[in-house]
Design a protein that fits this description.
248 residues, mainly alpha
Length: 248
């Protein structure tokens, strides 16, 4: 291990971890404060997929609109707090990744540092790509499906703010986290847990697993599942390219 890691005691590591957590939480807190001061601008972006001028609807020629209602006295206030924190997590994600990298780097061998540093460098880009896929593709597709699905003409789809926000966060934030899969595989490959041959052997199971993951995140209609499963399988193939060969 690196010299710094050998010289540090357990309590030194615990103090380093405390500092890492404190700085990460502080970054999220400060970003949250900024969002709290700009509720109008924040919710214009969050609610854009409910409007007919959203980019995917215009691109595909879909006629869509959705009105939201609030049925609880304090719901809008607490939803503002929740949205501010979660959007702050998205904005502060690269800094949190940087803090994690700083914490683990001293414990790595020199030949591991380069690959793991590359993995952490990829993680922010992949996370934001996942957020974009969820926001611009998966979420509006799910909204279009469910707003047009009805078991009876006498039942109107009246959507609450809480219901929409629950779907919004599962589509956007969780998909962003799922796109971290190649980062995890690169780290596992670097430390010798998995290699390219083993990953190729998992191909026959991969798409089924991606469908199951898509079913857990999306509302499980077939179209939404495939919309998400296809880019997830593409990430699996990308992960194979990142893996070391067995002989390396």
């Amino acid at each position: 291990m690196a010299e710094k890691d050998v010289q540090m005691s357990f309590w030194d590591h615990l103090e380093e971890l405390r500092g890492t957590l404190f700085r990460s939480v502080l970054a999220v807190f400060l970003c949250s404060i900024v969002f709290l001061f700009f509720p109008k601008q924040l919710f214009v972006a969050v609610l854009w997929p409910t409007t007919p001028d959203f980019v995917l609807y215009r691109l595909l020629g879909w006629d869509f609109s959705m009105d939201l209602i609030n049925v609880e006295v304090s719901a809008q206030f607490f939803m503002h707090l929740k949205v501010s924190v979660l959007c702050a997590l998205v904005v502060a994600f690269p800094y949190v990744v940087y803090e994690v990298w700083k914490f683990i780097a001293p414990a790595l061998y020199p030949n591991e540092k380069k690959a793991v540093k590359t993995a952490f460098g990829l993680s922010s880009g992949l996370f934001y790509i996942g957020v974009a896929v969820g926001y611009f593709v998966v979420l509006p597709v799910c909204l279009m499906f469910f707003m047009n699905y009805t078991v009876s003409d006498s039942i109107a789809n009246t959507i609450t703010l809480g219901s929409y926000m629950s779907l919004f966060f599962s589509m956007v934030f969780l998909i962003g986290l799922l796109f971290e899969f190649p980062t995890v595989i690169l780290v596992l490959s670097t430390i010798g847990i998995i290699n390219r041959k083993q990953m190729k052997g998992l191909r026959k199971y991969a798409f089924v697993v991606m469908l199951l993951l898509s079913a857990l995140i999306t509302p499980s209609d077939p179209f939404s599942m495939f919309v998400l499963a296809i880019p997830l399988y593409g990430l699996f193939e990308f992960s194979i390219l990142l893996c070391k060969k067995e002989s390396e």
